């Protein structure tokens, strides 16, 4: 089972190979482009599978393309998850290094049992100063 596909528009245009045995470098697509292409491949595969007279070449081609795209997406998601975990780990390590027992105690919130009420004279002073 080969994962090779080519696209050419002219004899001088470069070919895109998805085969791991290919001597050419594979062009890197964004994750969005890969999802879009996988969506299209899945739609074409579904369409071809629904046909009463299957074109086996198209059916296998779309299935192989979809398979390789799904593998690329899984790799990209693993890479993103690894990057996210590393960034969270490094952020938590820097937070642990910068925090001290004193700063943790200063962050402690003590709830008041009652709310102290202010005198009414303060409100009157504020109202007279705002009339200016």
- SS-based class: mainly alpha
Helix content range of the residues, please? 55-70%
Quote the distance from N terminus to C terminus: 86 Å
Which residues form runs of ≥5 with pLDDT under 50?
A: 4-18
In DSSP terms (H or I, runs of 4 or more residues), the helix count works out at: 4
- Percent of residues in β-strands: under 5%
Folded structure, characterized:
By secondary structure, this protein is an all-alpha fold. The protein has a domain at 27-98. The chain is 60% helix and 0% strand. It has 4 helices and no strands. It has helices at 31-50, 56-98, 101-106, 120-129. Helix 1 runs antiparallel to helix 2 (56-98). It is elongated. Mean pLDDT is 75; it is low at 4-18.
In short:
With about 130 residues, the protein is mainly alpha-helical. About 60% of the residues lie in helices and about 0% in strands. The protein is elongated, with a radius of gyration of 32 Å.
Notable characteristics:
132 residues, 4 helices, 60% helix, 0% strand, mainly alpha, single chain
Topology, pairings included?
Elements lengths: L30 H20 L5 H43 L2 H6 L13 H10 L3
Helix pairs in contact: 1-2
């Amino acid at each position: 089972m080969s994962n090779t596909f080519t696209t050419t528009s002219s004899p001088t245009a470069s070919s895109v190979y998805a085969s791991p045995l290919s001597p050419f470098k594979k062009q890197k697509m964004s994750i969005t482009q890969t999802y879009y292409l996988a969506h299209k491949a899945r739609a074409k595969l579904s369409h071809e599978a629904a046909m009463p007279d299957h074109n086996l070449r198209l059916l296998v081609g779309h299935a192989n393309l979809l398979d390789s795209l799904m593998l690329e997406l899984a790799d990209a998601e693993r890479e993103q998850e690894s990057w996210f975990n590393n960034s969270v780990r490094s952020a938590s390590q820097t937070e642990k290094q910068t925090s001290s027992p004193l700063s943790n105690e200063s962050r402690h919130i003590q709830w008041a049992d009652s709310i102290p009420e202010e005198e009414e004279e303060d409100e009157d002073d504020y109202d007279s100063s705002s009339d200016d």
